[in-house]
Amino acid sequence: MKKLILGLLILMTSQKVIADDHHNHHQDPPSVHGMVLFGEEETYLSHLPMFHNPHNYQSILKVELNQKLKKAYLESKKGEELFTIVPESFVLPEMISNPKPFMATLVKGHFERGGTPIGKGVIKIKQVLFHKKLKKEGQKPFNYQGILIGTKAEAYYLHSIVSVPDFDQISKVKLDKFSGNIFKKIEANGFTHLSLHFSPNEKPLDENEKYFYVPETPRRAPSELEVLDILYLEFGDLSF
Questions:
Q1: pLDDT band for position 218 (50/70/90)?
Q2: Would you tell me how many other CB atoms lie within 10 Å of the CB of residue 60?
Q3: CA distances from residue 157 to 173, 183, 203, 207 in whole angstroms, order as listed
Q4: Any bridge partners for residue 45, and if so which?
Q5: What is the radius of gyration, based on Cα positions, of the chain?
Q6: How far apart are CA 43 and CA 77, in angstroms?
Q7: What is the mean pLDDT of the chain?
Q8: What is the pTM of this model?
């Protein structure tokens, strides 16, 4: 009898956990999740985050644009200009866990700040590179922490968002010849975390500046990361 009661309690507890997980997963309402579009060899999306529901996520995706949208993007792209997208409404965590093609309007500039719509088409998620739910409270690191994606020929470095107040920054970067196995890690995992030494976390990176990191190689000597372009920098949306 005791075993039967214990079994029922375990079953009820398991069902409650599953129900709670299901509730937590679907508590976000459908919404329009604006994103920055960048990249040439590969194209990427970075969700424009805030610290309030349903936009409290830092998400980085590798995507494929349909032919019409890709043509509009490449023909309008002159250097490292800002492009954003306005996708159809969806629940972001559901899209992350079960990716599916979606319609989006491509905007040259920021879609909420005077940008110009230049095309509309289908975007397919090829790979979810990084996804994290943001919390208002958290312990910030001393050194600048970022998420490195891409390839040795075309790499991007995105600031790791931790807690209020914070900032969103996307930089096109170049790593020196001592980058070691970093890009093998990215190829295997989609991204890697990278910490910059002697660079405070609360200060954005500057264009055309060089910063230092220590690669995971036997050499273990400081190596250089050069910022080629700043693609996006935002404080206001992450200030509250």
A1: low
A2: 23
A3: 7, 13, 15, 12
A4: 37, 61
A5: 20
A6: 13
A7: 89
A8: 0.87
